[in-house]
Amino acid sequence: MAASKGKPFPFKHAWAILQTFDKWKLRDQETAPKKSAMLRMDDSEDEEKERNLGKPEGTKKGKQRVKMEGEASSLREKMEQMMKAREELTRMILETKILITEKKKEVKLAQVEAKREEAKRKADLEERMIKVKEAKDYQEDIAGRKRIFRGASSTFRGDTPMSGGGDGGVDDSNGGA
């Protein structure tokens, strides 16, 4: 017990138990730091690690290490969950975009098909209107020919509206006889 400086150790019953542990064995073997080293307050962690290299970890540091490892692992788990959630969200966004694109294609095809049907319907309607007009023109032509034919046949018979009689438009009046 080099650190006691000539004073008797008051807890001999505790020392009897503690002296068998590595922490206390190493403590007695350690040399006291020099005053110049005590005055230097800029001890780096590397020097501290070198000094504590063979010592077992204390309770406080052990708890702190366990706590830090727990926080780090929970942080890692949270990061992994966030990454998985982000990947899932990205996948869902891509699927949604693909569905939207497919729907747009379907709508576009439906519009093109509707325009094609509309054009076909208009063409059919125009064709029917042309046929109706041709039929009407044909009927008017036939009606006109019938009128001409009736007029020609009545002229042959003498039933013209100008003749006044049914003798075919020939005027028989010779002046008196």
Quick summary of this structure?
The protein is mainly α and 177 residues long.
Outline the fold blueprint.
Blueprint: H1 12-18, H2 22-29, H3 35-39, H4 45-51, H5 59-157
What does this structure look like?
There is one protein chain. The protein is mainly α and 177 residues long. It has a domain of 47 residues. The chain contains 5 helices and no strands. The chain starts with 11 loop residues before the first helix and ends in a 20-residue tail after the last helix.
Keywords:
single chain; about 180 residues; mainly alpha
* Beta-strand residue fraction: under 5%
Could you tell me the radius of gyration in angstroms? 61 Å
**Helix content, binned percent:** over 70%
The helix/strand order is HHHHH
What is the terminal-to-terminal distance?
185 Å
User: Helical element count?
Assistant: 5
Give start-end ranges of low-pLDDT stretches. none
| DSSP strand count | 0
Structural class: mainly alpha
Largest sheet: none
Average pLDDT: 79
What would the principal axes of the Cα set say about the shape?
rod-shaped
